[in-house]
């Protein structure tokens, strides 16, 4: 069994080492430009087009992340890049769900309990009690009820907050009021106080965080974007701050990463910026999940996490 590996950073060696331990019988190699020798599986993060194009031997491509937007963009830009017979398989949770829940919960509770305002008061040495936000109207709306979104929504519901979730197909998640499909989008947004984005980035979801969506939220709402920068119309966010429709945003992802030095978001005190770190790919969990799926496929079995390329996630 031959496995090709690609990761565009210096950590490739340690990943290869761990895969070799998990799959001792495998013939593993790091892909180098010009390598067209046979392979059964590819394990990749943000691979170059030439690694995959024209390969009819691959049975499956494992994406070392939950989001497959980058790899599917290669196919969209140049159809035929992804080998037609190879399944594209993404990471499922692998420790990302608890990280996401921590990150989003921190942001939501910080807004609920008005920590930013208390910090400002502290800087002015002012001892002042602010009116609490009424919990019953501090509705959190989670876009995306998949592996990560459903876990985040349920974590927030445990704090007694009203939580809504939105997905493409109808979902039932205990403790969450759910909405599905475009026809229910406005009802989902209506009066939401904190909008959390955990959608995959697809042609259908690009730019979904825009002026129209913001206008449906409660006045002075908050945004937490932990999915992809391409979901957010950046100018609409700044306009929504200027009008008072949005009060603050926590952003982990950006259209251009790293966020350029001269980007206006750096100067905006209402935006909290983190460098795409809300849920990191954990090596141990990821190697174990991918290795187990390779073994299952090798034995002729089926696995979960297979991406529907047409749908985009
Ligand atoms: P997932 O399990 O595939 O869930 C995707 C959810 O989005 C599903 O509920 C799906 O609806 C819904 N959805 C997709 N297209 C939709 C549409 N057009 N309208 C309404 N709902 C739609 O994905 P996941 O594992 O939770 O990951 C979600 C995303 O998080 C990833 O794609 C990635 O971009 C992002 N992410 C970010 C980080 C980070 O560090 N910032 C880390 C990991 C992941 P159905 O339930 O009907 O299918
Ligand atoms: C990270 O952003 C991922 O998609 O796993």
From TrEMBL:
This is Glyoxylate/hydroxypyruvate reductase A. Keywords: NAD, Oxidoreductase. The lineage of its organism: Bacteria, Pseudomonadati, Pseudomonadota, Betaproteobacteria, Burkholderiales. PROSITE patterns: D_2_HYDROXYACID_DH_3. It comes from Paraburkholderia rhynchosiae. Residues 107-278 form the D-isomer specific 2-hydroxyacid dehydrogenase NAD-binding domain.
């Amino acid at each position: 069994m031959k496995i090709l590996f690609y990761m565009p950073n210096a950590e490739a060696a340690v990943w290869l080492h761990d895969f070799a331990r998990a799959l001792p019988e495998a013939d593993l190699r790091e892909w180098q430009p010009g390598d067209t020798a046979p392979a059964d599986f590819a394990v990749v993060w943000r691979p170059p087009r030439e690694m995959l194009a024209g390969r009819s031997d691959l049975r499956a491509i494992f994406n070392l992340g939950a989001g497959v937007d980058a790899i599917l963009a290669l196919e969209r830009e140049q159809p035929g890049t992804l080998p037609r017979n190879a399944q594209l398989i993404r990471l499922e949770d692998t420790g990302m769900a608890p990280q996401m829940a921590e990150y989003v919960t921190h942001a939501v509770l910080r807004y609920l309990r008005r920590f930013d305002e208390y910090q400002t008061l502290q800087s002015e040495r002012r001892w002042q009690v602010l009116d609490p936000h009424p919990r019953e109207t501090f509705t959190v709306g989670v876009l995306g009820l998949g592996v990560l979104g459903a876990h985040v929504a349920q974590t927030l519901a445990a704090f007694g907050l009203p939580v809504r979730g939105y997905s493409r197909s109808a979902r039932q998640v205990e403790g969450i009021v759910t909405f599905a499909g475009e026809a229910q989008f406005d009802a989902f947004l209506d009066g939401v106080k904190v909008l959390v984005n955990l959608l995959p980035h697809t042609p259908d979801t690009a730019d979904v965080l825009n002026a129209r969506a913001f206008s449906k939220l409660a006045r002075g709402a908050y945004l937490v974007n932990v999915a992809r920068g391409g979901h957010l119309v950046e100018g609409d966010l700044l306009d929504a701050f200027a009008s008072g429709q949005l009060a603050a945003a926590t952003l982990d992802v950006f259209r251009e990463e790293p966020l350029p030095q001269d980007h206006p978001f750096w100067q905006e005190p209402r935006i909290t910026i983190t460098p795409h770190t809300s849920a990191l790919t954990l090596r141990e969990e990821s190697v174990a999940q991918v290795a187990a799926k390779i073994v299952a496929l090798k034995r002729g079995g089926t696995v979960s996490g297979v991406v529907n390329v047409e749908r985009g996630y």
